[in-house]
Amino acid sequence: MEFILLDTLYANECKDRFHSMTLSEISEDNDDSLGVGTTLYRKMKKLVKLGYVKKGCLDNHADTFYLTEEGISVVEECKEVDR
């Protein structure tokens, strides 16, 4: 699930604090197949702690998230392996 979160941010070009997504937007982008909000929040919190994701600007009182350079590298490396 963590890679799906990273890949969703990558596909939507969420690469700085002004171009970021809320957990609701990430869930909708994946047809609500990622589970409940608390699960998503825990997974995203883990990715923040690992340094792959940072919090962006608030969007109507909701946290937004975007990829760090390290997160972008991880996604691009995984996509290279899949080719």
Fourth-tier CATH superfamily name: Winged helix-like DNA-binding domain superfamily/Winged helix DNA-binding domain
Structural class: mainly alpha
Shape: globular
Strand percent estimate: 5-15%
Order the strands across the largest sheet as they lie in space: 1-3-2
Q: Tell me the Rg in angstroms.
A: 12 Å
CATH architecture group name: Orthogonal Bundle
Taken in chain order, the helices and strands follow as: HEHHEEH
**Tally of individual helices:** 4
Main sheet, how many strands, which sense, barrel? 3 strands, antiparallel
**Count of the domains:** 1
Distance from first to last alpha carbon: 20 Å
CATH fold naming: Arc Repressor Mutant, subunit A
Chain-averaged pLDDT: 91
Which stretches are poorly predicted, pLDDT < 50 over at least 5 residues? Answer: none
CATH class identity: Mainly Alpha
Report on the architecture of this protein.
The structure is a single chain. By secondary structure, this protein is mostly helical. It has one domain (2-82): Orthogonal Bundle (Arc Repressor Mutant, subunit A). It is built from 4 helices and 3 strands. Strands 1-3-2 form a 3-stranded antiparallel beta sheet. The protein is globular and about 35 Å long. It starts with a helix and ends with a helix.
Give a quick rundown of the structure.
This protein is mostly helical and 83 residues long. It is built from four helices and three strands; from the N terminus they run αβααββα. β2 and β3 form a beta hairpin.
